[in-house]
Amino acid sequence: MTAEPKLAPIRKGLLEFLVLKIVGARSVYVPDILRRLADTEFATQEGTLYPLLSKLRRENLVEYRWQESDSGPPRKYYRLTQAGRDQLTALDDYWIRINRTISDIGH
Amino acid sequence: MQRLSITASLNGTTLQFDEAAFARLEAYLDDARHTLAENPDQAEILADLEQAVAEQCRKRLPTERQVVTLAELEPALEEIGSVQVPDATPEPEPAPRSSPRRQLEQVSEGALISGVCLGLARYLDVDVTLVRIVALLLLFFTGGAMIIVYLILMLLLPFAAPQPGAPPIGKLPAKSREFVEFVRGKLSTAAG
Q1: Residue B97 lies in a domain
Q2: CB contacts < 8 Å between A and B, how many?
Q3: Cβ B83–A76 below 8 Å, yes or no?
Q4: Pick from A74, B111, B142, B154: most CB atoms within 10 A?
Q5: How confident is the model at residue B1, as a pLDDT?
Q6: Any domain includes B33
Q7: CB-hemisphere CA count at 13 Å for B99?
């Protein structure tokens, strides 16, 4: 029996954290985020990302501004708000802590 | 013969679709709209998705062609993926609604003609017989003008979802429903 069905919700839960990390690194638009995740376990799609970003925006963790593009319509560039940066720091700390717990436990 | 193409405005980007691709696009967006029904950012996410569809289709459209077909749309939608709603935020839950908001609909199950009276009775929470008697009286007193009112309501009111244990749809209501859906189909093609 494969563990995959139990891993899927873990990935799903971590996606938000990873999106915050990507947006935190520099101002990005959605195809940048998709590309960054494409070759990882967290590869995702616009149908997932847009609702997630709108949720983060509603929680006041990210904000966007419109930026003209040379090819096609203007694009939404996302970046973290101060609250978003605080949350990312908290998540980073938490991640390090639970990582340590997971590798220490059972030894 | 020139094939029919439909021009669609996707969040400001204009693209032409053939009929099959347009129907597929509408189905995708309807599905997204439905999935996002409870989402306060529904309109904005739909706009984002429309723009994504437009970009993906344009990227795939051969330069010598103007009209998007399923050959471009299917892989585009495949790449965008169906809409997934993120888990509910730990925001305070809105107070549970005391009763679902009632909507004026027509009810095919157990209807005599199209279910307008039945829907009205359900909406007003009165006996359907009472509504039918009033409708008949109005029919006589208005010299038949009620028929027009009935027809308009029949064409406008959405069909209610069947309730558990509902009686089967009679012959006339089934025909009437077919007719209404046919007319609506014609109207939406004419408008699009």
Answers
A1: no
A2: 62
A3: no
A4: B111
A5: 45
A6: yes
A7: 4
